[in-house]
Amino acid sequence: MASEQAEPYHRTFPRDLIGFEVRGDSMDPVLRHGQIALAHRRVWPEDGDLAVVQLKGGEHMVKRVYLQREEVLLVSLNTATRPKRVRRADILFAHKLWGAIY
Fold first, then answer.
1. DSSP conformation letters of the chain
2. Which of 62, 84, 96, 102 could bridge across to 74 with cysteines, CB 3.0–4.6 Å?
3. How many separate domains does the chain show?
4. Which pTM was predicted?
């Protein structure tokens, strides 16, 4: 089963970017374990975008987001991981993915 976590990466990045260390293989082949996912701090993702999401309870993940009325479907690129449906109210933040560094 693929892992679904991202850990905050404590380093200063230029502009409005924030980094998260990828843990696991849920976003293979685009993001791999150990890479740093960079996201826009102030840009909410649009439907179908890749994003770093933090849920209430502190769980961070990098997923493709599909926005619905009151829910968001979080989808991994690795098909071994099932999509996760969450209420919008359970999302503390969602930052649009900008890129990754190795």
1. ----EEEEE-S--STTEEEEEEESSTTTTTS-TT-EEEEETT-PPPTT-EEEEEETTS-EEEEEEEE-SSEEEEE-SSTTS--EEEEGGGEEEEEEEEEEE-
2. 84
3. 1
4. 0.82
Domain that holds residue 12: 5-101
| Residue at token pair 């179908």 | 48
pLDDT digits over 39-54, tens only? 988 889 999 999 999 9
pLDDT of amino acid 72: 96
Distances (CA, A) of 38 to 1, 16, 31, 71, 80: 25, 10, 11, 24, 24
9: left (phi over 0), alpha (psi -120 to 50) or beta: beta
pLDDT digits (tens, 9 = 90+) for 73-102: 999 999 999 999 999 999 999 999 998 887
